[in-house]
Specification:
The protein is an all-alpha fold and 117 residues long. The protein has two domains: 35 residues; 79 residues, no CATH class. 85% of the residues lie in helices and 0% in strands. The longest helix is centred in the middle third of the chain and has 42 residues. The N and C termini lie far apart (57 Å).
């Protein structure tokens, strides 16, 4: 009887791993945590395949992607300084409420985070 109990325990444990892992993967994918970033090449390939685009249409699509990509980059250059200013304001306000020990740790976290970008 004890051998059977161990087998049930092991089966339950393994099933828990499979179900839990599946739930984590579903959550991460569904909510966008593990989506790959935008890839122009992947988008063109997808649209070409799904819409059966002709060579001329693919060329036009590439031109559209080039033009809008430049516009996105221009907009990003205009807006990024505003985001950076808000981020710095937030950091400075948080720094005001921290003790010296907490401030040291907080500043280190900011430096590590900035290094990952």
């Amino acid at each position: 009887m004890t051998r059977r109990a161990y087998l049930y325990f092991l089966a339950t444990f393994l099933l828990g791993i499979v179900v839990g892992g599946s739930a984590v993967l579903f959550y991460g994918w569904h909510w966008g945590h593990w989506h790959r970033g935008f890839s122009r090449h992947r988008t063109v390939q997808h649209l070409t395949r799904e819409l059966n685009l002709s060579d001329q249409q693919v060329e036009q699509l590439n031109q559209i992607m080039d033009e809008t990509g430049r516009k996105f980059e221009e907009l990003r250059k205009q807006v990024n300084p505003q985001f950076e200013a808000l981020r710095e304001e937030r950091y400075n306000r948080v720094r005001q409420i921290l003790t010296p020990e907490q401030l040291e740790k907080f500043n280190e976290q900011i430096r590590r985070h900035a290094g990952k970008k």
